[in-house]
Amino acid sequence: MSRWASGSQSGLREANTAKIVDAVKRFGGLTQVELAEATSLSTATVSAIVKELSLSGLVETRPTSRSGRRAQLVTIARRAGLVAAVQIGSRSMKVRLTDVGQDVLADRSMPLPADHAEDTVLDRITLLLIDMLGMIAADADDLIGVCIGVPAPVDPASGLIAYPGVMRRWESQPVAQVVEQRLGCPVLVEKDANLAALAEATLGTARDVADSLFVHASYTASAGVVLGSRLYRGRSGTAGEIGHVQVDPTGSICACGQRGCLETVVGADAITAPLRATYGQVTFKDVIARAAEGDPGCARVVADAATALGRVVAGVHQALAPEVITVGGELTEAGPIFLLPFTSALRDTAPQGRSPRRDPVPSSFGKDAVLVGATIHILQSTDPSRLLEDRS
Ligand SMILES: [Zn+2]
C-alpha cells in the first residue's frame, strides 16, 4: 500500500487514494477526467480525493487545457524541485523524473542505434527531458540536477570517458558541461555500474555493509565498487573495469585495443556470434529471452559467459573481500541460467575457506538499478538548503 494512503478514513477510501496517486505517478500529470478514466472511479470521488491530497500537500493542481477545454492538471507536489536520472545504454536510453522523495513522476525510454554518437544522443536527451517536464507542467528551472549514467568509466578530473575505444564517438567532449549549458542546472556523469552500486549500498541489498560490489553484465561488463560506504572510483575513474581484464592471451582484439579481454567473451557480440551459424541473425535480447525459456543453445552461451564472468569476479573478491556482491544488467535477466554458473565459478575459483560468505544476489532494483542510483547521486550531491528553498 502506498504511503500516500495514510490518514484516509476507510479501507476503500485508502485504496481509491492509492489508485489515484499511482495513476498520477505513472502518467506524470492527468486531468481529473483522465484520472477518473484511468482509475475507473467516479469524477466526484476523484475530485474529493484530489482536494484532500492537495490540502495535505501531496499533489498540486494547476490550470491546463485539453482539447480546447480548460481543466485542472493534477501532479505530485514538487515544490522542492525535480531530479532527472538518465541511463545511456549501448542500444537504448531511459529518462526518469522524480521528486526529491524519489517518487517517480515520469519514465520514458527510447532505442538508440548501435555505435551512437554523443552529439545526437545529448540532443535527444535534452528534447525528451523538456517534453517530459512539459507533460507535468514543469520546466528546466524546476530541476535541481541531472545525473547521466554511461556504459564506460568517466574520469572525475576531466569529465571525459576515461580511455579510448570503450565508448567511441563520446570521447571528445565533457558530457556534463554540454548538458549543463543546455539545461542550466547541475549535471553529473557517472559509470552506470557505479550508480547501480550506489543504489544497492544506499537503499538495496548492500545497505547494511560498508564494502560491496555491483557486477553489471550488460552489452559490456563492468563493476561498481563501494569501499567504506563510499563509491571507489580509483585512478581516472577506472576501478571496477573488469570487462578489460585479460582472460585469453590468444583471444580476439577488444574495443579497448587489448587482446582477449573478458568483454570479448561475455559482451553482447561474443554471446550472439557463436549462435549465428545455427540460429541466423539473433539479437542479444533474443538470446537472453530464449535462454530464460530453456532453449539449450542460448542457455549454453549465457552459462559460459556467466562462468567466465564469475571467474574474474572471484579475483576481485580475493582482492577486495566485499561483504555483498549484487548482479544486474540484461544478462542476469536469464535468471538461474546466469546466476547458478556465475555463483559456482565464483565459489570454485576461491581458495579453500575464502569463498564469498554470501552468494551473489540479483539487484534489489532490477532493471531500474542505474536510474535509482542516478537519482540518489543527485540527492546526495545537492546542498540540503537547496531543497528547502521556497520554489513556489
Ligand atoms: Zn578490453
From TrEMBL:
Residues 20-70 form the HTH marR-type domain. Coiled coil: none annotated. Pfam families: MarR_2, ROK. Belongs to the ROK (NagC/XylR) family. This is ROK family transcriptional regulator. The lineage of its organism: Bacteria, Bacillati, Actinomycetota, Actinomycetes, Micrococcales.
